[in-house]
Amino acid sequence: MDAVLVLFVVGLISLFLGIYTKPIYALLSNLIGLIVAFFLFYYMGTYNSPLKSHFFTLVFDGTGVLLSMICIAMTALVLLFGFESQSKESSQYADLTSLMMFSLTGALCLIGFRDFFMFFIGLEILSIPVYVLVGSRKGNSASAEAALKYFFTGSFATALLLFGIALVFGATGSFNTHEIGFAIASGLYGPALLIPGVLLILAALLFKVGAFPFHFWTADVYEGSSKPVLAYMSSVVKIAGLFAMVQLMSHIFGNLKGNWEIVLYAIIIVTFFVGYLSAIQQKSLKRLLAYSGISNTGIALLSILSGADNGGRNIVIFLLGYAASAMILLVVSQLLSQEEDDIESLKGIGFQKPFVGVALLISLLSLSGIPPFTGFFGKMLLIQDILIEHPVLGIAAILSAVVGAYVYIKLLLEIFKKDETQRELKVNLSSTVVILISLFLLIFGWLLLFL
Questions:
Q1: Does the predicted TM-score (pTM) go above 0.70?
Q2: Residues in Cβ contact with 262 at an 8 Å cutoff, skipping those fewer than 6 apart
């Protein structure tokens, strides 16, 4: 809880630093806050926190601590690589970064929730600032349209979620996740209320993470967002949302699996293929990431049905690999052009700029599930777990991974195509740091399995 409070206070400080219209002040303030929060999580349990006894609805276990540190690190990377483009509007830079810090506090609440109050508060604090961030590109109609679409679909999902939570409370008499789990395990609930409530919560969460059949907003929202905001959505928002969904459906409502397992089974299989098949013909990198993200969401959802004891750690590895790969792709695209995101702009860049080429190569190989990168281990562990109980689902996941590999390798061939057209690409220090850290995570991130 200390780290969450630090991030919130730093977000407020950054907001007031906007008075000076000096973006560097807000950047340094946020980075210092992120570093402090990171080490507070790292040393959690080695000191007595004065807040520990007052916030029993927010508890971080080993996996939650690890995931929180990853979210903090990803936010720092987004701030670093987005500084050059976002700071051009010096009057609004502090506002944008403060919104990101507030959203991060919501992500951490979503990771550590222990009752539905904290779950709902975390989800909304995570989401509402992102609605604003998506529409932050001044004078861009696509950005305004994306923000409006994201807001309305998100609000509809929130309505479903609240209705579902109300039904669950009516059936069990509690908002506490442990008490709800005990009531379900003991049979002390009203099935006429609980089953519809769980299905409504499942539908709302499928909306939030962008899984079929509630994925229709994803491509337009991704396309309308700026690249730093998209990087934040592809890392922190996706990580927190998927992890919370897995925790809720597998641990809290796991004993009711017979009532929603078949529905989720079908949804996951369609999600596998609808994303990758839609990504094949895309000319925009943002839309390609949106559709490939839909399929990767399906793979992450395997953790709900696998029933593996280490499923939480496996999904962390998978999401880490995805987030680091998306970060590299968006950093390079940002360096080429802040506004345009045509895949055509990447043509030959690996041939002309070897450092960038190697980074893109590792990024796309990891997304394709090629060893020895983190993306491979994440996919392998999730598919390996699901093959035990649901072999058909595991085989479908492998087939979809083959389609995904085609999408990524097709992009890779475009990147390394020999092209004499000279493209201006100046890799600045902050972008270099972000790329190097992301490469480190892709090459060595899977070692988190042994922590």
A1: yes
A2: none
- CA angle in degrees (0–180, nearest 5) for 190-196-202: 125
Residue indicated by tokens 């649901």 = 390
For 390-436, the DSSP string reads -HHHHHHHHHHHHHHHHHHHHHHHHHTS-----------HHHHHHHH
Helix spans in 280-390 (H): 285-306, 311-336, 349-352, 354-368, 374-389
Identity of the residue numbered 48: N
Cα–Cα distance measured from residue 308 to residue 381, given in angstroms and rounded to the nearest whole number: 10
Q: What is the pLDDT of residues 179-236, one digit of tens each?
A: 888 888 887 777 788 888 888 988 888 888 888 888 878 888 888 888 888 888 888 8
How far is residue 165's CA from residue 113's CA, in Å, rounded to a whole number? Answer: 14
Cα 420 from chain centroid (whole Å): 37
Q: Is 51 helix (H, G, I), strand (E, B) or coil?
A: coil
CA-based angle 68:60:4, to the nearest 5?
55
Helix (H, G, I), strand (E, B) or coil at 342: strand
Pinpoint the alpha helices (H) of 173-190.
177-186
> What 3 state SS string does 144-166 have?
HHHHHHHHHHHHHHHHHHHHHHH
Torsion (CA) 292, 448, 105, 338 in degrees, nearest 10: -40
Question: Which tokens hold the place of 74?
Answer: 């990803």
Q: Are 324 and 442 within 8 A, CB to CB?
A: yes
Taking 70 as the pLDDT cut, the residues of the chain under it are 45, 47-56, 89-91, 307-312, 337-340, 419-424, 451
